[in-house]
Write a structure and sequence with these properties.
Chain C: It comes from Microvirga makkahensis. The structure holds three protein chains of three kinds. Chain B has seven helices and twelve strands. Chain B is an alpha/beta fold. Chain B has a seven-stranded mixed β-sheet with strand order 1-9-8-5-4-2-3. Chain B has a three-stranded antiparallel β-sheet with strand order 7-6-10. A two-stranded antiparallel ribbon of chain B has the order 11-12. In chain B, helix 1 packs across helix 2. Classes of the chains: A alpha/beta, B alpha/beta, C alpha/beta.
């Protein structure tokens, strides 16, 4: 078991004037671990995700990331070039709405190949064959490689977005309600795919969801947020089977039995 | 004859302060080849899209002894070329020419002359959209960062798309280039046929975009490399036909429709080049028959 | 795989539960506190099958769940001894990474009910513990299939998700999964409750094999013949119960 966290968040706060987006948030993520951040709309979970992934500027606190060379800098210490390089190689971000994470007017193959080209891959045949491999891994027929995402169904778009993120073998993936916009039948397939890829690739994942079923299926650990604060965190099955905070109990009690 | 009692235009239309401002931008552009320098583009007495960027650059570098040539799609006698040439003849009273070799400054839209440019000459390109990343990234804030950090993967995404959709790189004009191994630059809508002419040209090359308020430059002998893939290298268009008028080959040809029965011919796009050759005796006997001439646009694979 | 190393305290208890108490506070009912068990203390040694006895609702399953880290502990210690190094870890501290590591290497758990995952076949459910431990897919599938065959699950069901299976079929998938890994400690919560006699005997055989291999087993068996067949001792949970006897 790896004893060094890949990400470490301490006393993180995001304020909008007097309004608190999130505050006093501290947690670690270890390599290969899936951490779910759950809570209702407005609980600050998406704000938290955006701050950690540097898509939004934090107000205060620390966010440290273990680089491939084992350095463990605060992300604020990294230059913009290094941070952007990190974001398109070592990290991934899966948006709820695939259109936010895809180039809709560019073919599926180019969507997947973009990160390869961004890091200097200049062999068309090689880029194409790797794009094709990844499409198959996310259960999209390789024959669709030259089709535009606008012609894809919601579930296919989401799977394409996943492939686009994974092609550079990132180590940390952020997911914002990755199945939120999908029909239930399609959701199961995407979830199953995510579950397999995460375990096959040993990815670390921070996933924001309001769906406790998704959290239970994918995560080992769970962070429950309310009004911008962590109210409970722990092993996912422990939090769900023996919730201690009143809010967590309310959340768990609201799940439909299957 | 100008009435001496009426106020005259300042030399070359622009006031001296504006010219200094633009010259500073040009100097900066020359110092950072391929980098787009913002400048305070002025209203010109012609609409955007008619070469206001190029005109301002020309106005700022023009001296009384310069000889100006203006071309549009290679021709000296098209509307845009004629009016800009007349403009400078009037506001700067400079000599004009159609001869590439005689000009000190050549303002161009969409072509680089076939006659190789020489040391001491300046070519000014009219640029509609200076940003080569614009087609995939609409945010100016983002494209600036991408240039600053040399993030040029997107250009290859576009070329990838070309190959995926057409089997070869189908971009035939405004083909992106990398300058001195650093900035990716839009060479303005010249045919990619002309791209190799920019590479290590002894002439100074200036680019002006009036509406977008950008100036960029290639100092003489700058490396200009057209972007491509290892397995789909950059190639220029090849024409199977020769010029129907001067019999030239290995030049850029325009297709001209000669009648309404499918008659057409291919002629040099560079009118000066064509005329010079013909005046020296290169002729083709008679007009071509219907559909005889044929241009074969190169297709890799 | 942990081996029985006689040089390191052979026979010493692998699991020691010390003064463990558990209650639930139900905030949705105005914070009412429901005590479950108090002062639970016992040990389980290699090759021992300790059976938790007592009527339903007395807290037997809660004790198993605490030992698996699925329920939090109010007070007390749950010590898990590493058979080869002798190192002891306190699972009651609740550190998620410690719990995950103990689940991975030390404690197996067969619950009463199988939690199914959409789209995942019975065979994959059973093979998963091997896959996550680095066993190659083909080998893992073969071992999973052998285990399911032993439990008489019709092979036609192997490649179907268990969501639509009968109670007994689901239970056998659950048992197969729990028995795939040779954990030093195995927690069994009524594994034979919905099985017919034949399959019950298969499970008894599997439990005996584990015991012979030195596994420490803690179980709940309401089924008297099974209990008699496997138990080495019985602990009456009523002694720890804080609830009024009905």
């Amino acid at each position: 078991m790896n004893s060094e966290p890949i990400l470490s968040v301490r006393k993180l706060e995001k304020r909008y004037g007097n309004f608190i987006g999130c505050t006093d948030v501290s947690f670690d993520v270890w390599p290969g671990e899936v951490v779910a951040i759950v809570g209702e709309s407005g609980s600050g979970k998406t704000t938290l995700l955006n701050c950690i992934s540097t898509r939004m500027e934090r107000s205060s606190g620390e966010i440290r990331y273990r680089m491939r060379d084992q350095r463990f800098p605060d992300l604020a210490e990294l230059g913009e070039a290094e941070l952007r390089f990190l974001m398109r190689t070592d990290w991934g971000f899966v948006h709820q709405n695939p259109a936010d994470g895809l180039r809709m007017r560019v073919s599926a193959g180019a969507n997947v190949g973009e990160r390869l080209m961004a890091i200097g891959d200049r062999n068309y045949g090689d880029i194409r064959s790797r794009a094709s491999d990844w499409l198959e891994r996310v259960e999209i027929a390789a024959s669709r490689i030259d089709d535009m995402p606008v012609s894809f169904s919601g579930g296919m778009r989401q799977r394409l977005q996943i492939a686009r993120n994974l092609v550079t073998h990132p180590r940390l993936i952020f997911m914002d309600e990755p199945t939120g916009g999908l029909d239930v039948s399609v959701q199961a397939r995407v979830l199953d795919l995510l579950r397999m890829l995460v375990s096959d690739l040993g990815l670390s994942v921070i996933i924001v969801t309001h769906d406790l079923g998704v959290a239970r299926l994918l995560s080992q650990r769970m962070i429950v947020m309310k009004s911008g604060r962590i109210v409970e965190q722990g092993l996912t099955d422990r939090v769900m089977d023996d919730p201690s905070h009143p809010y967590t109990q309310l959340l768990v009690a609201s799940i439909l039995e299957n | 004859m100008r009435n001496p009692s009426l106020p005259a235009y300042n030399f070359a239309y622009l006031d001296e302060q504006t010219k200094r401002m633009i010259r500073r931008a040009i100097l900066k552009a020359i110092a950072i080849p391929g980098y787009q320098v913002p400048f305070a583009s002025r209203e010109m007495p012609m609409p955007y899209g008619w070469g206001t960027g190029g005109v301002q650059v020309t106005a700022s570098i023009l001296g009384p002894d310069d000889v100006l040539k203006v071309i549009d799609q290679g021709a000296d006698d098209t509307t845009n070329a004629v009016s800009i040439r007349a403009f400078f003849a009037k506001v700067a009273n400079v000599a004009t020419t159609t001869r590439t070799a005689d000009a000190t400054i050549i303002q161009t839209r969409h072509r680089i002359p076939e006659t190789p440019l020489a040391h001491g000459q300046i070519i000014v390109y009219q640029v509609p959209i200076p940003e080569p990343l614009r087609f995939l990234e609409p945010r100016e804030t983002e494209t600036r960062v991408m240039h600053a950090l040399e993030e040029y993967g997107l250009v290859h995404v576009k070329l990838y798309e070309d190959i995926a959709q057409h089997g070869h790189i189908a971009t035939t004009y405004a083909y992106p280039v990398k300058v001195e191994g650093r900035y990716v630059m839009d060479p303005s809508p010249i045919p990619k046929f002309d791209n190799p002419k920019m590479h290590r040209s002894p002439a100074l090359q200036l680019f002006g975009a009036g509406r977008e308020k950008r100036i960029y430059a290639l100092p003489p002998f700058t490396d200009v490399v057209s972007l491509d893939f290892e397995d789909h290298p950059f190639t220029v268009q090849r024409f199977e036909a020769r010029c129907a008028l001067c019999n030239a080959q290995e030049v850029y040809l325009d297709e001209v429709i000669t009648d309404d029965r499918g008659g057409r011919m291919f002629v040099c796009s560079d009118t000066d080049y064509c005329e010079t050759r013909r005046s020296k005796g290169s002729q083709v006997g008679g007009l071509p028959q219907h559909g005889a001439a044929k241009a074969d646009w190169e297709a890799a694979e | 795989m942990v081996t029985d190393n006689p040089s390191v305290m052979a026979g010493a208890p692998l699991l020691s539960v010390e003064d463990v108490s558990k209650s639930f506070t139900i905030h949705l009912r105005g914070g009412v506190r429901l005590p479950v068990v108090a002062n639970v203390t016992f040990e389980v040694s290699p090759g021992e099958c300790l059976v938790l006895g007592g009527p339903s609702g007395i807290g037997k399953s809660s004790i198993l769940r605490m030992i698996f880290g699925n329920y939090a502990v109010d007070t007390g210690r749950i010590l898990v001894r590493d058979r080869s190094t002798g190192d002891v870890a306190d699972l009651a501290s609740g550190d998620p990474r410690l719990v995950l590591s103990l689940r991975r290497d030390h404690i197996g758990y067969v619950s009463q009910f199988l939690r199914t995952i959409p789209r995942v076949s019975a065979l994959d459910v059973v093979a998963e513990p091997l896959l996550t431990r680095g066993v190659e897919r083909k080998a893992a599938s073969n071992r999973a299939a052998a285990m399911l065959e032993r439990l008489n699950l019709p092979s036609a069901l192997f490649n179907l998700p268990p969501a639509t299976f009968s109670g007994g079929e689901k239970q056998r998938v659950n048992i197969a999964r729990g028995f795939m890994i040779d954990h030093p400690i195995l927690l069994l919560d009524e594994p034979t409750a919905s099985l017919d006699e034949t399959n019950r005997d298969v499970v008894v055989g599997m439990i005996r094999e584990k015991l012979a291999a030195g596994t420490a087993i803690l179980g709940i068996f309401h089924d008297i013949p099974v209990r008699e067949a496997v138990a080495t001792s019985i602990l009456d949970v009523a002694a720890f119960s804080t609830r009024e006897a009905a």
